[in-house]
Amino acid sequence: MTLPAEQARLMDTILLFERRIDQMHVQFDKYRHGEIHLLPDWQRFETQLLAFSRRRPHSLELSNQLDRVLFKFQERKRVWLRWAEEFHREK
C-alpha cells in the first residue's frame, strides 16, 4: 500500500473510533435513562482503541488526531462511569 493510501486508511480508522465513541455516548445515555438494560461494552472498545494506538502513526497530523480521539475517549469514559454509578445508586 502506498504511503498516502495508508495514511488515508489510518485517518478513516481514527474517525471510525471517534464515531464509535459518539455512538457509545448515546448508548450510555439511553442506559442511564433506563431505555436499554445492558451496559455498553466500553472495556472491549477501550482495548481495541489502545491496541490501535500502540501503532503510532508517523504523520504529525495523524498522531494529533489520534491523541485527540484518545483524550475524547478518556473524558467520555469518566462521564460514562459516573452515569453508571449514579444509575446503580438510584436503583
Could you describe the 3D structure shown?
The chain is mostly helical and 91 residues long. 80% of the residues lie in helices and 0% in strands. It has three helices and no strands. The chain has helices at residues 3-32, 42-53, 60-90. The model has no long low-confidence stretch (mean pLDDT 93).
> Strand-residue fraction?
under 5%
Low-confidence stretches: none
Mean of the pLDDT scores? Answer: 93
- Beta strands, count: 0
Specify the structural class.
Answer: mainly alpha
Tell me, briefly, the overall form.
elongated
Q: Percent of residues in helical segments?
A: over 70%
What is the C-alpha radius of gyration, as a whole number of Å? 15 Å
Total count of helical runs of at least 4 residues: 3
The main pleated sheet reads as:
none
Distance between the termini: 53 Å
Order of helices and strands: HHH
Features of the shown structure:
91 residues, mainly alpha, 3 helices
How is the topology of this model organized?
Elements (H helix, E strand, L loop, with lengths): L2 H30 L9 H12 L6 H31 L1
Helix pairs in contact: 1-3, 2-3
In short:
The protein is built from three helices and no strands.
